[in-house]
Amino acid sequence: MHAESMRVRLTSLHAMLLALLLTAGCSGLIFYLHYAADQNARQMLQYAAQKIQREAIDQNGKIIPEELAEEEYGLAGDNIALLALNSKNQIVSRSQSAVPFWPPHANSHWRLYIFHTTNNTFVVGLYWHKTEHDLKIQSIILILLCFSIFCISTLGAWLLIGRTLSPIGKLARQAETASMEDLQMRLQPPSNDREVLELVHTLNAMLERLAKTASVRQRFYAAASHELRTPLQALSGHLELALMRQRSSGEYREALQEARLQTQRLTTLVLELLSLNRLETSKLPLFEPVDVPQMFAAMLPTMKNDIHTAGVQIEERWETSIVYAPPLYLEILLRNLLENAVRYSPPFGKIKVHMSLKANSPCITLSNQSAHIPAEDMTRLCEPFYRPDQSRNGSTGGNGLGLAICNTIASACSWNMLLEMQEEEFKVEIKFHTVTPLQIEPVAAG
Fold it and tell me: How far apart are CA 257 and CA 205, in angstroms?
């Protein structure tokens, strides 16, 4: 039996507490029986002595033989012996053949009461050996009774605790059948106890979350392999085509340019994958006050060519400016949101950037004109490599990691990121938390 078993620990605890309780109770009861018997003997002896003094001794302290004989006869019926001695400690009268030793010694099995008159000493004794034997038998019976109660109660506790904990074992056996390949299974409650139902509900919710995570991971690996395979195949194909026969310098240059383009695409993809992994596993840097309009203005010149090529217009509106955030993370988030908006806006479309206060918390909203995105696609836009089917052909130049990186940063910083599709406009809203400088400290990502 495993010592770490809950059943063993609970039964052992019950047994120890019960043993202490029974030991204390049994000891107390045995002590009380001995004490009560001893007190009863004392009272009987005192009463007998008082009766002898009152009826068998005259006012001068002399024995009245007739009365003493009568008292001796009455005392014999109560198993009480009487021993009368003169001034020289010589026995002058004894009630029965079995009388206390005189002078008394420690091994005597008698309880004695001694009193004196002018001329005599009286010893009233109760033979205690039989009472001691009876008390011993009672003690043994009481100990055996307590031991029986202990054994029966411990066995009952073992069976009761086992029955109470049996649903956990049944759940464990059900859970053994679950695997990463079969996370769709759900546990069935082995009993209708509220605690068991709550545990089953919690475990099923965990299995559901694991199933969703496994599904996302599976789609991630499939999409990553596709995204990595595409530029590699293109790169390999162009190089093989260029090497098939002798070509002019212009044709070689064209092949090299295409190879460089695919290499750049592959490099960008790998770097963004590394960035996504670093965001998910590293600790957050310190939160600092950041002037968002100033950061945004410094970012625009670095994207001037992409914005000019797309022909989009950027409309800015700043109702507030300061947020507390890790500057690098905030810059990565804003850059990815802006790149995503530029990439997926129609030619000569408009991108709106709006920063305001909502419930005293800074909020940045970035929206762009967009073709309608179905609701089922909206729920998956933050998955790595996911893009709606119509944009998966790569014509936009994206790899489906932008919004995933933004979502990872928002989750790590505990910001709320909301995606909405309003008519022909795609909107991303980032709501920051109100933070004071005293609250700023690094926290673990994820």
Answer: 52
pTM, two decimal places: 0.49
Domain with CATH 3.30.565.10 in the chain: 284-439
Alpha helices in 176-245 (DSSP H): 194-243
Q: How many CB atoms lie within 10 A of CB 119?
A: 14
- Is the separation of the CB atoms in 363 and 327 below 8 Å? no
pLDDT in tens, 342-363: 888 888 889 999 999 988 889 9
Q: Residue 110 to residues 96, 127, 130, 200, 301: CA-CA distances in angstroms?
A: 14, 5, 10, 71, 116
Longest dimension (CA), the chain: 159
Q: How many CB atoms lie within 10 A of CB 122?
A: 22
Placement of tokens 């010589």 in the chain? 90
Closest-CA residue to 95 (of 81, 84, 109, 85) = 81
194-274: in CATH 1.10.287.130: yes
Report H helices in 282-349.
292-299, 304-310, 327-344
| Residue 159 tokens, joined | 């069976």
Output 67-74 pairs: Cβ under 8 A, ≥24 positions apart. Answer: 68/93, 72/96
Report how far apart, in Å, the C-alpha atoms of 263 and of each of 236, 259, 287, 393 are: 10, 6, 36, 18
- For residue range 98-151, list pLDDT tens digits in order: 677 777 766 567 888 888 887 888 888 888 888 889 999 999 999 999 999 999
> How many other C-beta atoms are found inside a 10 Å radius of the C-beta of residue 111?
20
Q: Where in the chain is the domain with CATH 1.10.287.130?
A: 194-274
CA distance 294 to 301: 12
b/e 286-311 (16+ beta carbons within 10 angstroms → b)? ebeebebeebbeeeeeeeeeebeebe
Q: At what angle do helices 327-344 and 292-299 cross, to 10 degrees?
A: 50
Determine the CATH number of domain 284-439: 3.30.565.10
Backbone angles phi, psi at 306, to 5 degrees: -65, -40
Closest CA to 428 of 387, 376, 382, 390: 382
Decide if pLDDT at 438 tops 70: no
